[in-house]
Specification:
two-stranded parallel ribbon, 11 helices, 7 strands, rod-shaped, binds guanosine-5'-triphosphate, binds magnesium ion, transmembrane, membrane, transmembrane helix
């Protein structure tokens, strides 16, 4: 029988974890909080000095005792957590004694003991034949009641089948552990949640990529359209304002200053070209910064073509003006001389001479003023033409720059999209890999369970069969000794 158990256990995959326990030749006294454990342990140490009695904290992890004394209070029957504690401390040890403590103060301890026995028998078949005793290790009143426990523990520790039973129980525990782990692996607790999380992460990555890409492209188009509009208006307004300024300046210029006016027009045209170039460069750089893309710098500036000012030669018009001015002066001189001749005949000659002088002066003045006004009108028309031409050139230049910036930003955006696409693909590939790994792991775990579980179940059956056989033999022996007595 023993060989069969060993053989079956040895068939289980060598790669499976084998939690090797160290069997200690000690009696472990354990129990729930305030059950009276320490008092029982102290009493046992006194009464059984030939054996080592320890409490749970004195037993290292991975060590299993030779016998377990499980102490519970007689106050009330076992709770679920008490039962779980017993399962844990007696997992690798078959030799277990149940102790109901403090029986000196709890008169109904026998009822509690019976209830505990029934509870544990229902919990696991191994507890059905468990021995129970009542104790009062540190009674408030009267002498300690510990004899039954001492006798029971002594018998348990000297039982020759104890080692074998404990070993079989440890094997059973290990087999159950492996079985549990294989089932958990195959069912994949947490695997479904992880797979759902991975699928959600994948969908989110694809969605994020698409949304980001279209948002970036919309932002690029909007920014470029806005820049085109704003810069065209800027250029147009700049030209309009310089035209107005030049016209205002022109209206106040004297004949001498008129000669320098074309140079002033040229200077202002250069200024407008520089301003527009600087404004466009700045605005496009801002657009690039906003979009997080690099815009190629603007190296050119709007062309400035200010031709020569129109000639002020005005032959026919000058002659006409001389004629009209002369007529006006002659008329004025004639009127003055007649006035003197009629009102003061003695001054008639002097009045005629004075009228002639005034007539000449008036003629010169009228001709001069008319000439100045004519020159200003000519230059004014020229300014309108020059600024109009410059405005067209500047607008064309702005349009060309915005177009170039659009191409440059479009290229940079395409590169960024490509990098983003590559990154998203990497993420998706990683997620897909993990999803595949989970699926493979699930299949592998199911295969391992299918391969090992039958062997484990046969081994468990063999272990339990042998434990049952030992119990039966023990009961037969005790019946025989009772009948002999
Ligand atoms: N009446 C009576 N009181 C007891 C008995 N055994 C222990 N007590 C009392 O129960 C309380 C807890 O006793 P412990 O032996 O320290 O119990 P424990 O389970 O080791 O307690 P913790 O280690 O604190 O969980 C103490 O106040 C003891 O005096 C007993 O047999 N009768
Ligand atoms: Mg204690």
């Amino acid at each position: 029988m023993t060989d069969r158990v060993e053989l079956l256990v040895s068939q289980i995959d060598a790669a499976l974890p084998t939690p090797a326990i160290v069997r200690r030749d000690v009696a472990l006294v354990a129990g729930p909080w305030l059950a009276g454990t320490s008092s029982v342990a102290t009493a046992l140490r006194e009464r059984l000095p030939e054996h080592t009695v320890v409490e749970a904290e004195e037993l290292a992890a991975g060590h299993a005792p030779a016998a377990v004394v499980f102490v519970v209070s007689a106050t009330a029957p076992l709770t679920e957590s008490d039962c779980a504690l017993l399962d844990s401390v007696a997992a690798d040890t078959d030799a277990v004694i149940g102790v109901v403590a403090k029986i000196d103060v709890h008169r109904t301890w026998r009822d509690v003991l019976d209830a505990d026995r029934v509870l544990l028998a229902r919990r696991a078949p191994r507890y059905r034949d468990m021995r129970w005793v009542g104790t009062a290790a540190a009674p408030d009143l009267g002498a300690p009641v510990i004899d039954d426990l001492v006798t029971a523990l002594r018998e348990l520790l000297t039982d020759e089948t104890r080692d074998r039973r404990n070993r079989l129980r440890a094997i059973e525990n290990r087999l159950l552990g492996v079985h549990r782990r294989l089932e958990l692996d195959a069912v994949g607790t947490g695997r479904d949640a992880r797979l759902a999380a991975l699928r959600a992460e994948r969908a989110a990555a694809v969605h994020r990529y698409r949304v980001d890409k279209s948002q970036r492209s919309i932002a690029l188009r909007a920014q470029i359209a806005q820049a085109r509009l704003a810069l065209t208006y800027f250029a147009r307004n700049r030209c309009a304002s310089v035209r107005t300024e030049l016209q205002e300046d022109l209206a106040g210029l004297s004949r001498r200053d008129l000669a320098r006016f074309p140079d002033e027009v040229r200077r202002r045209a250069e200024e407008v070209a520089d301003d527009v170039a600087a404004g466009v460069t700045r605005h496009l750089a801002d657009v690039g910064e906003e979009l997080g893309l690099v815009v190629e710098p603007v190296h050119s500036r709007p062309a400035v073509e200010v031709g020569a000012a129109p000639s002020r030669a005005r032959g026919a018009e000058t002659r006409l003006m001389l004629l009209l001015g002369g007529g006006f002066g002659f008329g004025a001189a004639l009127t003055l001389s007649r006035v003197f001749a009629d009102l003061a005949p003695q001054w008639a000659v002097g009045g005629a001479l004075g009228g002639a002088v005034i007539g000449v002066v008036l003629t010169v003045w009228v001709v001069g003023v008319r000439g100045l006004l004519h020159d200003r009108a000519v230059l004014d028309r020229w300014v309108v033409q020059v600024v109009g031409r410059q405005c067209t050139a500047v607008e064309e230049w702005v349009g060309a720059r915005v177009l170039a910036a659009e191409a440059s930003l479009g290229g940079a955006a395409a590169e960024r999209d490509a990098a983003d696409h590559a990154r998203t693909e990497d993420t998706i590939a990683r997620i897909d890999r993990e999803i595949r790994e989970h699926a493979t792991a699930g299949a592998r775990a199911a295969a391992a369970r299918d391969r090992h579980v039958p062997v484990i179940e046969s081994a468990l059956a063999a272990v339990r069969e042998e434990l049952g056989a030992i119990d039966t033999a023990k009961q037969a022996n005790s019946r025989a000794s009772e009948s002999f007595l």
